[in-house]
Amino acid sequence: MKHRSTSEQHHGKKPRVPAAAAATSTSPQDGMEDKAATNPRELTQNPLKKIWMPYKNGLPEKHICQRKVCMTNCPTLIVTVGLPARGKTYISKKLTRYLNWIGVPTREFNVGQYRREFVKIYKSFEFFRPDNEEGLKIRRKCASAALNDVREYLTEDGGQVAVFDATNTTRERRETILEFAEQNGFKVFFVESVCEDPDVIQENIVQVKLDSPDYTNCNTEEAVEDFMKRIKCYENSYETLDEILDRDLSYIKIMDVGQRYLVNRVLDHIQSRIVYYLMNIHITPRSIYLCRHGESELNVKGRIGGDSGLTIRGKEFAKKLSHFIQEQNISDLKVWTSQMKRTIQTAEALNVPYEQWKVLNEIDAGVCEELMYEEIQRNYPLEFALRDQDKYRYRYPKGESYEDLVQRLEPVIMELERQENVLVICHQAVLRCLLAYFLDKTAEELPYLKCPLHTVLKLTPVAYGCKVESISLNVDAVNTHRERPANVNVQRTAEDALQTVPPHL
Amino acid sequence: MSSTQRDNGSANSTEAKKTDPRVNEKKCSWASYMTNSPTMIVMIGLPARGKTYMSKKLTRYLNWIGVPTKVFNLGVYRREAVRAYKSYDFFRHDNEEAMKIRKQCALVALQDVKAYLTEEGGQIAVFDATNTTRERRDLIQDFVKENAFKVFFVESVCDDPEVIAANILEVKVSSPDYPERHRERVMDDFLKRIECYKLLYWDLSFIKVINVGQRFLVNRVQDYIQSKIVYYLMNIHVHSHSIYLCRHGESKHNVEGRIGGDSELSPRGKQFAHALRGFIDEHKLSDLKVWTSQLRRTIQTAEELGVPYEQWKILNEIDAGVCEEMTYEMIQETFPEEFALRDQDKYHYRYPGGESYQDLVQRLEPVIMELERQGNVLVICHQAVMRCLLAYFLDKGAEDLPYMKCPLHTILKLTPVAYGCKVEMFYLNVEAVNTHRDRPLGKIPKDSTLIHRRNSYTPLSSHDQVKRPRLYSAGNQPWLPLAPTPSALMPEERQSQVSEINSMSTLY
Lengths: 505, 508
Description:
The complex is a heterodimer.
Chain A: H1 33-38, E1 43-45, E2 52-56, E3 59-60, E4 65-66, E5 76-81, H2 88-101, E6 106-110, H3 111-118, H4 133-155, E7 161-165, H5 171-184, E8 187-194, H6 198-209, H7 220-235, E9 251-255, E10 260-264, H8 269-280, E11 288-292, H9 297-300, H10 312-328, E12 334-337, H11 341-348, E13 355-356, H12 373-379, H13 381-389, H14 402-418, E14 422-426, H15 428-439, E15 455-462, E16 465-472, H16 494-497
Parallel strand pairs in A: 5-7, 5-8, 6-7, 8-9, 11-14, 12-13, 12-14
Antiparallel strand pairs in A: 1-2, 2-3, 9-10, 11-15, 15-16
Chain B: H1 13-19, E1 27-28, E2 39-44, H2 51-64, E3 69-73, H3 74-81, H4 96-118, E4 124-128, H5 134-147, E5 150-157, H6 161-171, H7 183-195, E6 206-210, E7 215-219, H8 224-235, E8 243-247, H9 252-256, H10 267-283, E9 289-292, H11 296-303, E10 310-311, H12 328-334, H13 336-344, H14 357-373, E11 377-381, H15 383-394, E12 410-417, E13 420-427, H16 486-489
Parallel strand pairs in B: 2-4, 2-5, 3-4, 5-6, 8-11, 9-10, 9-11
Antiparallel strand pairs in B: 6-7, 8-12, 12-13
Helix pairs in contact in B: 3-4, 10-11, 12-13, 14-15
Binding site for substrate (chain A): 292-299, 342
GO cellular component, one term (chain A): cytosol
Organism (chain A): Astatotilapia calliptera
């Protein structure tokens, strides 16, 4: 996620830094040490993200470092290992979704996909027989093509992590990949999934394999039989990651769907985060319920932020929410709220224990707290425009951005992964961030996701993704959703700016 | 709710309950574990495998994030029971007398564990001993079942001889078991002791740490706290490194006596930044990482250094909410009640619309985790932030943390050493204002009903969360007593070499 262009700071903004007179903005690498000492580079604050950066000749220096998750210059190649139906693709997709959400550009490369494009029609498991020369040639070609795309993604397309999703069950194949990575300066981290539980494998096949393009013309029985034979083709040559032979590699071996893990030589921060994430996810069926607090006093006045109580309608929603939860008959439901009055009041109506998380508090609008959009436009027209230009990265003065929110919410996501049935009662911006994680939305889409009041979103993990049901509890409420206006130019008129503001008192 | 959750009820509580929805806070985010059963962490491993190191470090971390934890080291109990330790003969399995004593010690220790977890408000007990025999582990298993505790094993296995040797030298030679400092004989004696233990382990909920963190085997993690423990153990290392903590140079707001805000450095602040650069050059720190917050004053300070640095938003100073940019006089005038509340319980007090020290600790956890992973790091931050970080390294509790002295223009160098942390203080001889507010004089009449601030713009009070006292791991006595002593209350004048924060956690 790159910085916006630097031209913004010339847009007639009132200067935050006293005009840098004849500031000889010397580069720190200057040989003239003393001069540098008494004339440190002047700082300017990026108007969008409110980040202080040094500038030189009127333009900000590019090399300023904002703490990102991945601080190494070295891209990482994650390589899955395991027999078919061991959850490799499930893990790849989930991990990719998580890394992208926390801001690490990641993409998965599924070799099976390449194979399907190459071999248009899948006939049978025979393709995978170890003595099928033709098949082997094609599969090797597909792996190479995928690795080529990996290289392009990590070196030219700004990718930071690539997930190479294939069986990679032989040491020979893994050696090839290691060579490839070394040639290109990538770090390698293996993720192996080992499982012998026949029930788990069966369930796996039913959930994801039957719907695969490979089996569109088969009935269930045929498909399962063929797939089992396919697995057999790999079994004889399977060389699992070994504690002794592979002791110099960095890897995590996941055994029996997360009951046990073997972790070897974690090299850096991103690998440590990946390990922690993989150790917290599970596949037990469950549902996550997300909703906002009931309508609040400030909501009806069209004001953002603050810490007001529920309106009558908001209280009614809380009551209806209580009934809804009871009807759903959820076992062992955990209820989480923020530490703001309106979510707590909503939870109180449920008459069940609940947990308050400060990190679930609504986005901090800084100087704009409790203002109406009209007031923001009147008092901070530039800020208002900047926000419309890049709503994800825009940080309110003395407040937060959606980007900050995501960082703040990461422990919530981690704990949601660990838990089973949970109801989270939170706020509009927070809900958008959480939803974006589950539904794999981009930074551009996230701030405009529709999260109306008095509506419960029920998320159920299914196959490789998440099924979402939107349940309105039929209690009227104001609309708090402001679409991106057509005109986001800083010179725009107030009318243009306020065009999409939803009606309020 | 456990018996330790006391009813903070005054006559008003039911009234307050009706009007304030926050009164009914059942649990807080940090403390969801609190309503779960307490956990006993059982260390397993031969001597000199780093068990005590991990026990103490883990305990320090857990206490810092707010989970009351205490170490029960069997060696300490044994030493009490057997004053004069003769030699390794004590540990032989054919030494019946000794075996009886050792079992007795284990039983006494377990009784203390039970008291800690059921009556003293503890949540986690770390049972630090070899625990290598099946018999001993059966004893423990029966104990936890009887008391409905969870159990999590942390095993340390080492087959790298160099690591073992280094370990023995650094720690055991200074142990009370070896009054004679004759190195060779000590080594010999100790190695003989090692051979007396058997190697029997089996599958339960555990993490097996192999070769000081090169490899881990993790089995059946049951809950949130175990998952955090695993993550922590996987991120710590034993390579020597130093962490430098300092504040930004003196800022314009500092000079005016204002808190918070985002002001620039004063001229003296700039001088400090320049001096800091000299300090770094002088100390020839290889591969030093530099971290700042996203507030101007730390960044300005870092700019001086001429090296790349990383900005962390979570290193920003504590958010003083409605009190931002005020002087203490102004706060006293405008919000006298808030001012008083803060002095009552500075750790838990949250500014209206702002944060508390407790919130800060939660916010800073990823910084601590990353500091554990890294090598040499210089963190340029702020007063409250620095106090929180320092409290983690020096094992300071909620009582002391908000009053730790972190003066401007002074660098603290922290070097992990054996079981603790060595602190060196470097004052760079650039004058600055003093921003430290001492603990208020005399006994503050503490309300039995703890008043907490929620993230609220209309100040509310609520009778909620039990404040659990920070407990110190055994053998790690705090330098400053828990109650304010007269000296702590003296107006801070001296810039002594032996500063109050230069309190080394007593080496084991």
